[in-house]
Amino acid sequence: MSEDGDICPICKSSRYLNPDMKFLVNPQCYHKMCESCVDRLFAYGPVTCPHNGCEKILRKNKFKTQIFEDVAVEKEVDVRQRVMSVMNKREDEFDTLNDYNAYLEKIEDSIFTLLNGTADEKDALTKEIEAYEKEHKAEIIANNKLRDEEDKYEQQKEDWMKEQRKANYLMAVEEQRAAQEDKEAAKRELVHQLATSNKDASSIEQNVQKTALKRSSARTVNFQPMPTSRYFEKVKKESSKPETPFTPFNGDRQIPALFEVQDHYDDKVIEPLAHDIQHQAGGFTLKAAYARILQQAFFGLGVDVQTELLAEENGNSNGTAVPVKTEEDPVKLEEPSIQVKVESTV
What we know:
The chain has 346 residues and is mostly helical. It is 49% helix and 3% strand.
């Protein structure tokens, strides 16, 4: 805060001489003055703002501590809170998302007018908001109450998830410590058996490794991280028409599939990848790779885009592929599946 900001414009007191001095503002005009001036000037009721040129009538109970250093930001936050406490309709109260977005845009326009509009525009909009608040008082109170409950729910969810993350972290640390202890115990056991047993070293090492593996497996089963959000999942209202992007293929919704993945293919390109440790670490499997290749090969067979769009416009689309059966169509969609066996390199 600047040096001028540390001096009360009314009594000229300085925060340098009074470090505990607090500055207050009134939402009527947002002129700043110290707490002592507020107590002194407004002790006997409403008084005109003591700042030169300001004719606003101020009340003592309306003064509040200034949160933001910039008064313009302070004013915008207060105006936004007042407007949104009245215009507080929820998204589920509108038929379409466009209607809800238009309502949000109207809120922003109202806030902008109250901040930057002319005096006549501000007065007209203020009267309009007051009339709306009076007419829809019950709905406004209900929505504000519901919003407070949701905020409380979100706070509880955040606190609960924070506790779960902390508990999972402690469990992971404990599991890591136990794994290190088992590793050191296995080393000591190996040294002890090599020194005392008459068996060959390879068999002793295998037995020690088997024992260590059993301990590790048992510890992994016991170590189960707690869920982070399962008990706080919200039930979302399903819309009558899901807003999903249109795909001209619809291969991901063709049931049953037009192919069947075989257990083995004579493939010299993809098959060696199954033995690569880097691919194995990422979860690579041959069957999943072949299934993806065949899915791409059969993507959209038997689907006519124009027919599907026409069915959707007529309200008959159920989200599945709409095949067009012709005499030249080589794909028979009536069959549950088509056996496909790739003999050459995919």
